[in-house]
Amino acid sequence: LKVFERNARGVTLTIEGNRLHLRTTEAFALISVNSDRWVEPRGTAVVRLASIPSVSGLWLMPRMAALENHPTKLRIVLDVDNRQADLA
């Protein structure tokens, strides 16, 4: 399955790549909506992080295990998206 074409300016998604992007975006949105419905037990610290995929994959994910195994029992909610984060 060829999902992108290389060109002089970088890469562009193929038709199949666009389809895959749309389907995975829908799937992750559905997971996000449903996981937000869960109620945290009292005393659980929830940390919500938003990141673009490159930062998440290259820097954050290698450090996630250390954060999740922290003695304070942190629960980390990670939102990975190419859109600009709403900091309001």
List keywords for this structure.
two-stranded parallel ribbon, 2 helices, alpha+beta, 2 domains, 88 residues, two-stranded antiparallel ribbon, 42% helix, elongated, D-Maltodextrin-Binding Protein, domain 2
Describe this structure in words.
With 88 residues, this protein is of the alpha+beta class. The protein folds into two domains: 1-38; 40-88, Periplasmic binding protein-like II (D-Maltodextrin-Binding Protein, domain 2). It contains two helices and four strands. The protein has helices at residues 15-35, 53-68; strands at residues 4-7, 10-13, 45-51, 74-80. The strands form two sheets. A two-stranded antiparallel sheet has the order 1-2. The longest helix is centred in the N-terminal third of the chain and has 21 residues, at 15-35.
